[in-house]
Amino acid sequence: MLVLFAGMFGLVVGQARGGRLLNLADLKVRGWGLIVIALAAQLLVALWLVPDPRVPVTFGGALLLGSYAALLIVAWQNRMLAGMWLVGIGIMLNVLAAAPHGGWVPTTPEALQSAGRAVPGPLPGPGERPYVQSKDIVLPQD
């Protein structure tokens, strides 16, 4: 949802600054195949692997980290495009947050609640499957 709002915001700002949507057709982006693979991996994790308790959490996390790596490659391949350095920094920040948690972005029940998302009941204990949601892993607040 955040990506949708960011995209809409970018379109509005571009129009306000005199840009034309048709100019995007002339944009030469390298690595479309990697973009599709990365997004497919993230959708696979969010829509299929997360809800299935038989799938190890480490497998989903590894797919997420792999998708971030693919997106970083694309950002590097397109580093000469305006603003691509900012995209690369954003991906790296996701990696820095997710890597220590096995590829999942950490959050807390309180953060979920303030964002209007479903809040889990009691969190699983040590050795149990952690509560994962979309691309997040829910951790107790320190």
Structure write-up:
By secondary structure, the chain is mostly helical. A 3-stranded mixed beta sheet has the order 1-3-2. The longest helix is centred in the middle third of the chain and has 21 residues, at 57-77. The two termini are 28 Å apart. The chain has 5 helices and 3 strands. It has one domain (25-138). Helices cover 53% and strands 6% of the residues.
Features:
3-stranded mixed β-sheet; 142 residues; single chain; mainly alpha
Mean pLDDT: 88
What percent of residues adopt helix (DSSP H or I)? Answer: 40-55%
Outline the low-pLDDT stretches. none
Rg over alpha carbons: 18 Å
Number of strands: 3
Structural class: mainly alpha
Helical stretch tally: 5
Structurally, the number of domains stands at 1
Please write the string of helix (H) and strand (E) elements.
HHHHEHEE
- What can be said about the biggest beta sheet? 3 strands, mixed
What spatial form do the alpha-carbon principal axes imply? globular
